[in-house]
Amino acid sequence: MQNNLLVFGTKNFNNSLHEIKDYLDFSLFxxxxxxxxxxxxxxxxxxxxxxxxxxxxRYLNLINSINNKPVLLIExxxxxxxxxxxHKILSPFTLSDFNTMVVTFITSEKFTQNSFIKIKQYTxxxxxxxxxxxxxxxxxxxxxxYLIELLFNEKKPQSKxxxxxxxxxxxxxxxxxxxxxHIYRLRKxxxxxxNDENFIISSNSGYSI
Length: 209
Description:
By secondary structure, this protein is of the alpha/beta class. The protein has 2 domains: 4-114, Response regulator (Rossmann fold, 3-Layer(aba) Sandwich); 120-208, Orthogonal Bundle (Arc Repressor Mutant, subunit A), CATH 1.10.10. Helices cover 42% and strands 22% of the residues. The chain has 7 helices and 11 strands. It has helices spanning 11-20, 34-40, 57-65, 95-115, 142-153, 160-168, 176-194; strands at 4-8, 27-30, 46-50, 71-76, 87-91, 116-119, 122-125, 130-133, 136-139, 201-203, 206-208. The strands form 3 sheets. A 5-stranded parallel sheet has the order 2-1-3-4-5, sandwiched between helices. Strands 6-7-8-9 form a 4-stranded antiparallel sheet. A two-stranded antiparallel ribbon has the order 10-11. A hairpin with a 2-residue loop joins strand 10 and strand 11 (206-208). It is elongated.
């Protein structure tokens, strides 16, 4: 999927990026007004910000108000700025270095975002295989992660049959008791550590989170 960056910069800065945009491995969108922002923000992976615009309070407030978008700040060494950035690219830089830095950063951010799931007050770390809340955590199996993720993503309770189909793929050693046993063990671990009996909810329609 194409990486799209929304650029906040001065006129000269934006013009310089226009000259090289066809040589980059990502697409650039340039902020002009609130309408453009509203239209493009859902397709944007990150914000690319020239440090000079951070002196303009209108730009600064807008940049810092956009949630869940990494900010790549381009600045000269030693330049003071107020933007809440997640990564800094120091100018000057070569076209090749700039291209590589941006692509590497966005790829890393995507991997990180895909590795964590926020559910209620909990966080699932798919890499570390942990379910955490506050300063407490438990280890969960890969299958338990699949189960949690499926129940969280679905908008309605999931029957035992659906869980067997999607989690166990109807393996020969799986039956309805397999589902019940795994959910019972997961609930037991969650209750023992977090004293929470309602993380997974059961009803006549099935299981849900």
